[in-house]
Structure formats: C-alpha cells, structure tokens
Amino acid sequence: MANGKRLPLTNNVVIDQATALDLIDQLRVAVPEEVRQAKRVNQESDRIMEKAQEESDRIVARAQEQAAFLIEERELTRAAEVRSQEIIEEGHREADQIRHGADEYAASVLVRLEGECVKALQSIRHGIEMLDERRGVEPEPEPDDSELEDEPDRMAGHARV
Predict the structure, then answer these.
(1) Which residue in 106, 103, 127 sits closest to 27, CA to CA?
(2) d(Cα 158, Cα 85) in Å, to the nearest integer?
(3) What is the C-alpha separation between 106 and 114, in angstroms, rounded?
C-alpha cells in the first residue's frame, strides 16, 4: 500500500480498492496454508514419535532376546537388563527431544502467522476507518482482544466501496 495517495491536510491515505482486495485475497489463501503447514509439522512429529517408539520396542526386544541367551550367567543377565533400561530411557529422551523441536517449530510458525494476521487486521481496520470518515460515519472504538472473536460480525455492517 506504499503507492497510496495522501489526502491534503490529513494523515489519511487513499488506496486502490483492487490492490487492497487483492492483498486481502492473498491473505485468505496464505493463512490456511500456514495452518496446514503447522498441522503437517504436528503430524510429522507424531510419525517421528511412532518411529522412535517402534525403534525403542525393537531395541527392547533385541535386548530381551540377548538376555534370554545369557540367563544362566547372572552377571551378564543383570548387565543386559541395565542396558535394556538405558536403551529405553535413551529412546524416550530422543523422542522427547524430537517432540520438543517439532513443538518449537510449530510455535514459531503459529507466532509468525499471528503476526501476519495482526498486520492484516490493522490494515483492514485502517481501511474501514478511512471509509467511515469518508462516509461521515462515527468511528467505532477499538475492540480489546476478547472482542476479536466477534470481529467478522462487527465488520459485516461495513460495505465495500
């Protein structure tokens, strides 16, 4: 919107309607993609967790087979049990690290998406204010965060120009 035209003696800018609507349409397309991307990250995290659990189960099964062969020798059996527990704990630690990394990535994507939504909402509000001023309508007070859920209903009364 850098190519808008300033109105003399005001802080208002007139913007091209087609450009503004095109940007809004682009946002409508981009936001669902970010949500789908976050879902894919969560699904990938689940898949990695399942894979880690399967690997952990295979390692435990292998350790148990080894322990069965060494059952007659007590010290070797005890060592195998300890190693089996270490492997299980290592598998859980690795799974936790993978989950943490996936959660961090999903959180960063969602935070970035939230920022983009806030910017879009600010642009939309600014456009509505300009239209309201041009039509001589008294501007509505800024909603607080709890009212943002009702934002589409509030904006439904504003016609596109």
Answers:
(1) 127
(2) 64
(3) 12
- Rounded CA gap, 42 and 20, in Å? 33
Q: What is the pLDDT of residue 120?
A: 93
Q: How far is the CA of 18 from the CAs of 22, 24, 79, 114, in angstroms?
A: 6, 10, 73, 25
Three-state SS for 64-123 is HHHHHHCCCCHHHHHHHHHHHHHHHHHHHHHHHHHHHHHHHHHHHHHHHHHHHHHHHHHH
CA distance 115 to 130: 23
Q: What angle do CA 132, 138, 139 make, to 5 degrees?
A: 65
Output the CA torsion sign for 51, 53, 55, 58.
negative
Q: Are 80 and 63 in contact (CB under 8 A)?
A: yes
Report the C-alpha gap between 98 and 141 in whole angstroms: 45
pLDDT at position 124, please? 94
pLDDT averaged over every residue in the chain: 81
